Amino acid sequence: MKTIENYSLLNNNTFGVDVNARYFIEYDSVEELQYLLRSDLLQENKFFHIGGGSNLLFINDYEGVILHSKITGIDAIEGTRCMAVLKVGAGERWDSFVEYCVSKNYGGVENLSGIPGEVGATPVQNIGAYGAEAANVICAVECIDVKTGAEKTFTAAECEFGYRDSVFKRALKGKYIVTYVHFKLQKTGWTPNVNYGSLKDEFAKYPEQNIAAVRSAVLAIRGRKLPEPKVLGNAGSFFMNPVVPISLYENLKKSYPDIPCYPVSDTTVKIAAGWLIEKCGWKGKSVGPVAVHGSQALVLINKGGANGLDIINLSDSIRASVREKFGIELIPEVNIIFG
Ligand code: EPU
Question: Is 234 in the pocket of ligand 1 (CB under 6 A)?
């Protein structure tokens, strides 16, 4: 474990924003993390924990300590003929884990193929795509209490999962660091979950209707819609899909019969933010070094050399347009970090 001073975070955020951290530390084990939390450096400085940096926007240099987990490993800790429980280190790449499950023919995470980032962030953010979310397969989350260094394991119910939401983003924000996540996967009785949008048609193209085919279909759709961060800096969906009262949706539907929505509860629906942004004329538009992606308006891209403020300014303009045209407030999904 070593402390690097004035570390460039360019390769630690998929937006490709060039900012420095005053200190940067990677740790390999729970014991190293506990030691770090007691150290003078962390007692005397503010700190922020990153994962793969795929859902972050740094606005300026971070005048504290950036922590990053290198806790890895995928271990089977429980299993029956029908299911397996895997304990996965927070520092594992999410998509390597998905690939591992698919190679073992374990069902449950194949719809979440190709999502950038690391395992430790999955319960915080409750990552989701193509009709599935992490909450469907997470059975426990091992954490360290930032204040005391004590270990605590949260059950899935205690995580209070919601759409792109968990207790770790709300009441317990900044209070725990995830070290391991336990996933429950299906060994038998798997059936494809391909009802989301274009997934059904894409999946139908594969001769073998298996778990690997779902992964291939999802990767094919993602490849068409979402920019590769190594080529064009981005953080996936910049905004969450807004959850609005059904009455507002019904009203909008009178003027926009094709407005896409997904049911949420008896009184609310989720509207596709990408559609709202496109209808405001933003799709494919550039403002200086930043732009709205031409294939998916929910994604903002760094065309090269953009800083955090360039991206925030574009986000603010988009939010103002959507507010004015539809009376809907878009909330960023990306975690915005001021140094
Ligand atoms: N749409 C448009 N214009 C656009 C984009 C979308 O009209 O520019 C319409 C589509 O035609 C479709 C609807 O909006 O009717 C939904 O679009 P899409 O299937 O692309 O999904 P999304 O709701 O825009 C969400 C997630 C994505 C995830 C996809 C697929 C959020 C905030 N985003 O996007 O997640 O990959 O569904 O499941 O929930 C991410 O979180 O970073 C991310 C990429």
Answer: no
81-112 pLDDT, tens per residue? Answer: 999 999 999 999 999 999 999 999 999 999 99
CB atoms near residue 315 (< 10 Å): 20
* 43: helix, strand or coil: helix
299-305 LR contacts (CB < 8 Å, sep 24+): 299/226, 299/227, 299/234, 299/236, 299/237, 299/238, 300/234, 300/235, 300/238, 301/227, 301/232, 301/233, 301/234, 302/15, 302/16, 302/17, 302/232, 302/233, 302/234, 303/232, 304/16, 304/233
User: In this predicted structure, what is the pLDDT of residue 197?
Assistant: 86
Report the pLDDT averaged over residues 29-38.
98
To test the pocket of ligand 1, the residue of 113, 196, 275 to mutate (highest count of ligand atoms within 8 Å of its CB) is: 275
Provide the token pair at 142. Answer: 């091992």
**Phi/psi of residue 16, nearest 5 degrees:** 70, 40
- Whole-structure pTM over 0.90, yes or no? yes
Ligand 1 atom nearest the C-alpha of 240 is 32
pLDDT in tens, 170-209: 999 999 999 999 999 999 999 999 999 899 999 999 999 9
Q: Measuring from atom 41 of ligand 1, which residue has the nearest CA?
A: 237
| 237 annotated active-site | yes
Catalytic residue among 26, 160, 278, 333: 333
Strand order in the sheet with 176-186: 74-79, 83-89, 176-186, 138-145, 151-155
The CA distance from 310 to 238, in Å, is 14
Average pLDDT value for residue range 306-327:
98
Q: Which residue is it, tokens 């729970």?
A: 30
Q: How far is the CA of 226 from the centre of ligand 1 (A)?
A: 10
